[in-house]
Design goal:
alpha+beta; single chain; 2 domains
Length: about 375
């Protein structure tokens, strides 16, 4: 194990730049096709993109804020002492393998990964079970650090605290190294997009990045997908396919979308943002309800603030949540996912949409079993 860089005094932007130099623990499960939220394609774009993206959301914020609490609960439950490492580590034999670990166990060749989970995901932690991509993350850390075991601790919000000791599995680690080596050398360094493997997550990637008769531009720096030859030619000029700043309004506009009075596109260019190629205009969403504020990746459907309000029962707070969340998909798809996973609920009494987490009934009409 080699200390690549001390994180003491390291700016967040510089830390993000170092992460782009290799594969981290949170990348490992996605590369193996085990992460239900991140695809190999997403990791590929994150590593090859020239931009340094600082993506964040409320769930990630809570995870960071509660990390210290999870570590303290772990020490209370086990009697073990933990410490911060304050470093980014690198596997000396396979330097593309990096590790930013939450804690190391004092006096032991072991580490600790701290997690938080929604009560709606409690079933994934039943008994001795843990989400597969988290277990792979721990084995990745063992591969980098040489540790003999790794603990995985979780607070299931509002319910319970749990932990599991994951013993080093040498055969699994060697397989993991081979998979990561192939991904780094065969895809990231060569600029070749990952091949589909027939899994659901690969099918999602195909639907997102290869709609219709796409034209593909491949290079060492990036891989871009375009639906027309005109879009492909336009992308040769970086100013036509990048973040466009609306200096008059002081808001960052992603892409270009100009329409006439009949909402017919006059000028349109997508830009890459977080997980996909989209158009997004926060200022228009907040201040110009009839102007385009979002165009998803897989179609040229134009959405305005009024459209978001219509699908969200005219509830401005829910519409804002949906607008902030979408980064490639149609907003209707995102809403349906929230209903399916139980993150949002439509009250069957008053018809209002509300966030379901730790709510026993509808906050608008107090109906139980909404």
């Amino acid at each position: 194990m080699k200390k690549l860089i001390s994180t003491n005094g390291l700016s967040h932007e510089d830390w993000l730049k170092y992460r782009k130099q290799g594969i981290g623990g949170s990348d490992a499960g996605a590369i193996c096709g085990l992460n239900p939220y991140v695809s190999p394609m997403s990791v590929f774009y994150e590593k090859t993109s020239l931009e340094v993206e600082d993506y964040d959301n409320e769930s990630m914020r809570q995870g960071r804020d509660l990390e210290e609490y999870v570590a303290r609960r772990f020490m209370e439950e086990t009697g073990l002492k933990v410490r911060r490492s304050n470093a980014m580590y690198q596997n000396e034999e396979y330097p593309f393998m990096l590790a930013n670990v939450d804690r190391l166990i004092s006096g032991e060749n072991m580490g600790l990964e701290c997690k938080t989970a929604s009560a709606y995901n409690a079933d994934k932690w039943t008994g001795d079970s843990v989400p597969a991509h988290y277990e792979i993350q721990c084995h990745h850390y063992m591969a980098v650090t040489g540790a003999k075991a790794w603990y995985l601790a979780v607070v299931i919000l509002g319910r319970e605290f749990k932990y599991k000791k994951i013993e080093r599995d040498e055969e699994l680690i060697q397989n993991l190294i081979a998979i990561e080596k192939e991904f780094w050398e065969g895809h990231v360094l060569s600029g070749n997009i990952p091949d589909p493997d027939g899994s659901d997550i690969s099918n999602e990637v195909i639907n997102r990045y290869f709609p219709g008769e796409d034209v593909m531009l491949r290079s060492k720096d990036k891989v871009l997908a375009f639906q027309t030859w005109e879009q492909f030619v336009g992308a040769v000029d970086p100013s036509k396919c990048s973040y466009k700043n609306d200096s008059q309004k002081g808001n960052e506009v992603i892409g270009i979308c100009i329409v006439d009075g009949d909402r017919i596109l006059q000028e349109f260019k997508r830009a890459y943002y977080q997980q996909g190629w989209i158009f997004k205009n926060p200022y228009a969403f907040k201040n110009e309800p009839q102007k385009p504020c979002y165009v998803p990746e897989l179609s040229n459907t134009i959405y305005t603030r009024e459209d978001f309000l219509n699908m969200c029962n005219d509830q401005a707070d829910i519409a804002e949540i949906v607008f902030e969340a979408v980064d490639w998909q149609h907003p209707e798809t995102y809403l349906n996912e929230q209903y399916t996973t139980g993150e949002m609920t439509i009250c069957n009494i008053c018809g209002k949409i509300f966030l379901s987490y730790e709510v026993e009934g509808c906050p608008y009409c107090s109906a139980n079993g909404a």
